[in-house]
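Record type: monomer structure entry
Structure origin: computed from sequence
Chain ID: A
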Amino acid sequence: MKLLREDLIGELGAISQCQDHIDSADNEKVRELLSRIRDDEKEHVAELTKIIQELDETQARKFEKKEW
């Protein structure tokens, strides 16, 4: 679980970094490429979140509460 959570942190960091680069890029092709990479990272976040939820009962209950 620790490794999965560390991977999740890395993916979230990659999304933030890509978004910063997208926001500062002057070239449309560069922005398009970075946007695709960012979106791939978002998919990784979804996949990691799903498996963490499946493997950690407490985490699953927190998602079920939907108090956020």
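Annotation 1: Residues 26-68 form one domain.
Annotation 2: The longest helix spans residues 28-55.
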